[in-house]
Design a protein that fits this description.
- The two termini are 38 Å apart.
- With 718 residues, the chain is of the alpha/beta class.
Length: 718
């Protein structure tokens, strides 16, 4: 069917359903959509009376499934409205009457159109029941789902999600993304299912919901997949109660233009600047001045002539020349009026530190400032934030403690408390940052604006973001996909346990809990998801230190067998591949290992070995091109003290880097407190090293590998 014809047919049907005040389609109406979009379903007919049912069953010539058809009974099984395996005229008659009676008892006022008579789908070895569906996610819009189906779907929850629409390749990738993927390929002698037919069901559903945004949910459950094809035994379609709200969007050029003036300003005005210590306006002024910002700083306060030795202005409109950023340090109730002045002055960015907006229930006040910003073309950062740091500009526009250690990590957070944890971690670990930005309520500027900027910023090598939600998940994914090939993006998504909180009208909707969708789609975008705050910060600190791997073969060299076992577990847990040591390489390692040690992988050199054994085996690991990454396990002994190990390791790695051989190397150091200094020494020299843990260094290596795959450096999808 030509694309326009099928759209017209579906549009006419949906409008007729809307006209009756319904949001759920009946099974025959669902079949119209399926036929229009080539979604394969079994033969079926609507029987309006018992004689029609007998005739329909006779035409199919075998056992049939009979289902109630009622616009008022969406869950047919709950109403006793589904009977499987009905055969023979007498059985069809009895079942027809029983289904109608059950429906009347379940919902006496329900409209009943009749009974659907459907071909019985195959069962037995080689037949798998799966679910294919689509939902409208509040963050990501139309999302398509695939997983194990049938009665266990909500128990097993073995489901994967993608942004709709998906192409044929992405649809096929979904088949491999569930835990039970092997079942679809065939196990215990059973043949595999027709993967092409199954992927087509996914692709066509995604196409349907993309073409018709008013479709809120689609549920094909079960889809019966066999070696010969895939048929949807049941199709459920739910329409949205109302049209989604359109969000204002900005082009990439517009984002970069405003972000450039925010992150590299020449002139900053502080609205609410104060001479009084303890006031936010005083703290912001002191940080700007003491931080060494070389641009112009203009205090704005109608009650002062001079603030901290700078001429004060009654209004921002009195400030001479252009202003790039206005930092607000006034109570929420005064923000709207001051923002009007900022807009009339032509200031492109407003940094709104005050709280007292949507986070306290004052949504109308927040809506008002958003409208003012849009009217004047002012981008809003906040409100309800701690401010921001742009270290390469010596800019500290915040009322919190200053931080000026320049580096390659950009950090953002929705929460002020998390922002200060970021600051403390950066100071304690001497992590150089390019920026620390608070986002707060995200009334306007959000993660996709920042990602777009940091993706282009030459000072930024890695971006780490704490977020509680995304205003526009698709915009974030677009920005992430543009950024990840150039630099890693790490996300800590809070609120994982809120999954499934929203009401859903279908199996697919019930499965599409917030976190399940976030998890899959962030992975597709190439984002590294951190399980916790410390992991996010450690990934951000460590990923710029490690070179990108050139292959997936990892070798562990350890001085302690126990550490080697734990490191092996960590390698597997983080999706890495322990190299199968070939015989010649095994012989080479054995040349340096005492007879009671063990080659293979891990390479156990034993704990009593001198520095020369560590050095020789590390050299061998770096020298052999078949090895792509090293995990070192050090055990503190007097024979090889921690700093001796650290110095020899750093020296050898530096030597190989000068020769153009630069592999990721991480280290786990077990021992007395001296190992802490040794780890810091190694970290500063390009070896990610941690004391007292085997998990953390390998988790960082795993994160680097996930980024490398997502960036296309190793192949695969991460």
């Amino acid at each position: 069917m030509p694309a326009e014809d099928r759209k017209e047919r579906v549009r006419a049907l949906l409008e007729s359903v809307r006209a009756t005040g319904r949001t759920s389609l009946t099974a025959p109406e669902g079949k119209v959509l399926a036929d229009a979009y080539g979604i394969a379903v079994p033969g079926e007919e609507l029987a309006r009376d018992v004689d029609e049912a007998v005739a329909c069953a006779a035409r199919f010539g075998g056992p049939v499934v009979m289902k109630i058809v009622s616009p008022d009974i969406p869950h047919k099984t709950d109403a006793g409205g589904v009977v499987v395996g009905v055969e023979g005229a007498a059985a069809v008659r009895e079942t027809f009457h029983r289904i109608i009676a059950n429906a009347r008892a379940y919902a006496p006022a329900a409209r009943v159109d009749g009974v659907q008579v459907q071909e019985l789908l195959p069962s037995g070895p080689g037949v798998q029941e799966v679910i294919v569906g689509a939902v409208t996610d509040p963050t990501f819009g139309k999302v398509v789902a695939f997983g194990l189906g049938g009665v266990l779907v909500e128990v097993l929850k073995d489901v994967t999600f993608r942004l709709a629409p998906v192409d044929a390749d992405e649809a096929r990738s979904m088949l491999d993304s569930i835990r039970a993927a092997e079942v679809l390929r065939g196990v215990r002698g059973a043949p595999g299912v027709d993967r092409w037919a199954l992927a087509e069901q996914i692709r066509r559903v995604s196409e349907l919901v993309t073409d018709f945004p008013e479709i809120a949910e689609v549920d094909l459950n079960p889809v019966v997949a066999t070696p010969e094809g895939a048929l949807a035994a049941d199709i459920r379609v739910i329409l949205a109660a109302k049209a989604p709200t359109e969000r204002r969007t900005y082009t990439r050029a517009q984002m970069l233009a405003s972000m450039r003036r925010l992150m590299q300003p020449r002139s900053v005005a502080v609205i609410g600047a104060s001479n009084e210590p303890g006031k936010i306006g005083n703290s912001v002024m002191r940080n700007l001045i003491d931080g060494g910002f070389s641009g112009e700083i203009h205090p704005v306060n109608p009650k002062a002539d001079d603030i901290l030795g700078r001429k004060a202005y009654k209004s921002v409109t009195d400030v001479p020349g252009e202003v790039d950023v206005a930092v607000f340090a006034i109570p929420a109730k005064f923000v709207a009026a001051a923002l009007e002045e900022v807009g009339s002055k032509g200031v492109p960015n407003a940094v709104l530190i005050p709280s007292g907006f949507a986070e306290t229930g004052e949504q109308a006040l927040q809506d008002e400032i958003v409208a003012i910003g849009e009217r004047h073309g002012v981008r809003l950062l906040g409100p309800n934030i701690y401010g921001y740091y742009s270290t390469w500009q010596d800019l500290c526009a915040t009322f919190c403690t200053p931080y000026d250690v320049k580096g390659g990590v950009a950090l953002t957070s929705q929460s002020g408390g998390i922002g200060m944890a970021i600051l403390g971690f950066a100071r304690a670990t001497k992590t150089g940052v390019s920026a620390i930005v608070g986002l707060g309520n995200k009334a306007d500027l959000d993660e996709d604006d920042l990602l777009t900027w940091f993706g282009e910023d030459p000072h930024t090598q890695c971006i780490a973001m704490h977020l509680e939600d995304l205003k526009d998940g698709r915009a974030f994914v677009e920005a992430a996909r543009a950024t990840v090939p150039k630099k890693p993006v790490v996300v800590l998504k809070a609120g994982r346990t809120a999954a499934g909180a929203k009401a859903a009208g279908s199996h697919t909707g019930a499965l599409a809990g917030d976190d399940a969708v976030y998890d899959d789609i962030l992975r597709q975008a190439g984002v590294i998801r951190a399980p916790g705050l410390n992991e996010m910060l450690e990934y951000a600190r460590a990923l710029p230190v490690l070179p990108a791997p050139k292959g997936d073969k990892v070798v562990i060299i350890t001085g302690a067998g126990g550490s080697g076992v734990l490191l092996s577990d960590a390698v597997t847990d983080n999706g890495l591949t322990l190299m199968d040591i070939p015989p010649d390489l095994d012989a080479s390692f054995r040349a340096f290992i005492p007879p009671f040690g063990a080659a293979g992988n891990p390479v156990d050199i034993t704990g009593g070995e001198p520095p020369s054994t560590y050095e020789a085996t590390i050299r061998l690991g770096l020298e052999d091109p078949r090895i792509h990454a090293l995990v070192l396990g050090y055990w503190h002994t007097i024979v090889t003290p921690p700093m001796v190990f650290a110095e020899l390791t750093a020296r050898v790695i530096a030597e190989f880097r000068e020769r153009g051989i630069d592999k990721p190397v991480v280290a786990s150091l077990a021992g007395d407190v001296e190992v802490e200094e040794a780890c810091q020494y190694l970290f500063e020299r390009g070896v990610v090293a941690y004391p007292y843990t085997t998990e953390k260094p390998v988790a960082v290596l795993g994160a680097k590998y996930r980024w490398a795959r997502a960036a296309g450096l190793l192949g695969g999808d991460g």
